[in-house]
Amino acid sequence: ARDLTMQDVQQIPLMHLVYVDQREFATVSPTDDFIRIIGSGNATTCHIAVLRGSGKGVTSLAHLDGSETESAVDAFIKSVQQMDQSEKLHMHLVGGFLDDKKHSEKLTKEIFRACINNEFRIHLQTACIGCLNDVVKQNATHFPIIYGLAVDVRSGDLIRAVFPDQGPDMLIRSATNFIGKGTLLEVYNSNNPGRLVIDPVEWRTWNDLDMWLTLPDPFIRKYLSTSPEQEVATFEADSRKVLKFIQDNPQPEKTLFVNNKPRVYQKEKSGEWTQI
């Protein structure tokens, strides 16, 4: 944990990257010619988990937020095991801090419990969590040290990271975090190399959405985050964009997913994703 928190933060280019948003995961083989880096960011009380097979080195990264944690961890583990077929899986867990409401601690315990109860053998190699990922700043307020993490699929190296470009359909993916079903979604799997898949979703009704869009920034920050003081400066603006998108697309299964089919993207040589 000390080595990881002392790293310089690197900007990760889009070239060989698949970005994982909250409540998503991606599973990549070292032989995948399209993807070499999996990453995720903007984690405060959320945890970013990396799982790597001891056989073929198949690697998966998940952004866990406490929604249906046990089933999320099970899906995450099975995805790696099905591709790697190894006796032991190595885990790195990064995120959370000493927040006042102890959301981070609760999530850590949920993840550990899910791993302990899982049928596969999990070897915890990195636990940069809680007090090990905590720094005290202005007004004696606690903050996470690491907000973003990437993993090099071929070497297994962990990287403190930020992501200038997060890939396609981020408004859809962010909206799903707000009012989706809470299920962990696999957006990339090397069984279909180069293909990022956004499966059809249905959004729960958000009452008084029009009112929420008129509320002042402090209210948005306070009630739409588990850690208001630790969020990035663009949190309010980003949240409003997502709320407006939900308002404009109340039935995504009809307007965004034609004939209830997933939105599929192909990774190009330039690093861009092209919808197919």
From TrEMBL:
InterPro entries with a match to the protein in the record: NTAN1
Organism classification: Eukaryota, Metazoa, Spiralia, Lophotrochozoa, Annelida
GO molecular function list: protein-N-terminal asparagine amidohydrolase activity
GO terms classed as biological process: ubiquitin-dependent protein catabolic process
Taxonomic source organism: Capitella teleta
A matching Pfam family: N_Asn_amidohyd
GO cellular component: nucleus
Protein name in the entry: Protein N-terminal asparagine amidohydrolase
